[in-house]
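Hi R.,

As promised, here are both runs. First protein below:
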Amino acid sequence: MTETLTPACAATRAWVEDFVVAHNVCPFARREMLNDTIRFVEVGAEKWESALEALIEECRRLDASPDIETTLMVLCPGLENFDDYLDFLDVAEALLVEQGYEGIYQLASFHPDYCFEGAAADDPANFTNRSPWPMLHLLREAGLERALAHYPDPEAIPERNIEAMRQLGTEQLADDLASLRASVDKR
């Protein structure tokens, strides 16, 4: 969406372009970037109630704006602790169900310290879900279903991504993520 981005949203957009698209972590992101159908919004998350209200407002915005395919909600400040973020994510997912958005939208989760259950914290595979800031990715279920229907072997995407992250290595991935944050912190 061509609108002025906050520094955190600009860095998140750079993360999508320079990491997600460049490494084909999400094979559908390139099309959405080219079509300018990704909305980037920064939401303070120190108070969960206001951040959850913003989530529902984003759902309503998507309801009213078919030209927006997906929204990346950058949750900063707030939720820097990964366990707190996971608790917030549980509440956010329950809220989508409560508000009647189950099956219409889904949340993908990203955090600077993302760690898959059972994985070592330094496993490069975690970087498939690591981002410069805590984030919720609000996706249209129908758009995701359309994209998956035309993609060969979508079940292989996670394993392919894990292998690609392990080839890049934790040190390079951590440095790349830190440089995106530093570009904002210097402002």
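And here is the second one, sequence first, then its structure tokens:
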Amino acid sequence: MRMRLHPVLLPFFLFLIGTGGIAMYALLFVSLLFHEAGHLAATRLVGMRVRSCTIMPYGGELIIPDRQLAPKRDRLIVALGGPIATAFLLLLVSVIPFPGQDDMIFIQQALLLLNLLPILPLDGGQALCALLEKEENRYRIRSFFLLHSIFLLLVGSMLLASFLPQSLPYLLLSAFLLFQNISAFRFRKYGRAYEQLKKHGKNISEKNE
């Protein structure tokens, strides 16, 4: 498995460094790694293979081959693995006093709140998709959630733009998520065709065995 940092993290970390938030930078980075460790532990639990892990400002992005073809229960467990890890870390840092405790608590609360929003590709959106999807409506539900996410992020970006420059890191994050959803919506038909082809090939293999 390959791990890397997404370039979009750079402006967030530069902002923290520029405002004297070196300690916050370190706490944020550790928190993101811990959050992603929760997802990785969940993939091991359900037997999913992870090709790569990219650390994002909101957590991470796992590349899991044929993820959408996995059972609903497995996808739900993987989606909730990160928030559960963050909630555990929040509980831990709340009861153990240490320098920077207040900042660490704030970061966990912010990560937890952000990731549970019902927006793709955040964990809350992934979990809702897994819960609502059925074999016959999987693509319709996912397309609906992509449009839903695009709308909410457009509204959020416009609201954040009215609070510049203080809201710059959040506006960049919102714009990044918006771009991700627009790209996913544009290429959804290709993803659907690939999944159907993969499923068809699997069925043929099972019949030949």
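A quick note on the second one: The mean pLDDT is 82. Let me know what you think.

Best,
J.
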